[in-house]
Amino acid sequence: NSVSPEQSMQLTDCVCNPGYHGANGDTCTACVAKTFCSGGTTAPQNCPSPFSSSAVASTSSSACICQAGYYGPNGGDCTLCPVGSFCPGGTTVTSCGGTTAGMYSPPGSSTLSQCVCDVGYYFNSYWNEDGLNTECTQCPRGYFKDSVGNALCTICPADTYQSNLGSTSPSSCEPCPLFTTTG
Length: 183
Hints:
- By secondary structure, the protein is mainly β.
- It has strands at 2-3, 15-16, 20-21, 29-30, 35-36, 45-46, 52-53, 65-66, 70-71, 79-80, 85-86, 94-95, 103-104, 116-117, 121-128, 131-138, 143-144, 154-155, 160-161, 174-175.
- It is built from no helices and 20 strands.
- The strands form ten sheets. Strands 1-2 form a two-stranded antiparallel ribbon. A two-stranded antiparallel ribbon has the order 3-4.
- A hairpin with a 7-residue loop joins strand 3 and strand 4 (29-30).
- The chain starts with a strand and ends in an 8-residue tail after the last strand.
């Protein structure tokens, strides 16, 4: 893991290769993960972001890649994955469900499975000419959903009604007028 110029005559002419570090003429040690080494006697340097990692024996900062839940340029700062997206690591940010409204994921999500329906939406699957489709659909009138997840909406209790789509609170179920009732 070291090299020396032609016609070298001393052990100290041997210097560590990139990805390794150590005194000239001594044992060269591989840089550990989350660091990189330019070679020679230069000490290992940490990746620029605490949320990035590199392989053992990395030679430059460009080997530092953002961890899952973060995104950013290789060798640069890593940013927490935003709400409504997932980041498998590296430079990629993927929106939950593309442009489908009602999808939610917490900040720092790293997989598609963390994308779920937001409050006021339920997970709906249906068949059409394209085959099986899934999406988050607003709760219908008379229903509400006050939590994040793929559960169904909750029906308003008897003797109440709710006239808006996508209701997010049980308090949106209003009492029926005097001398009227609902199922």
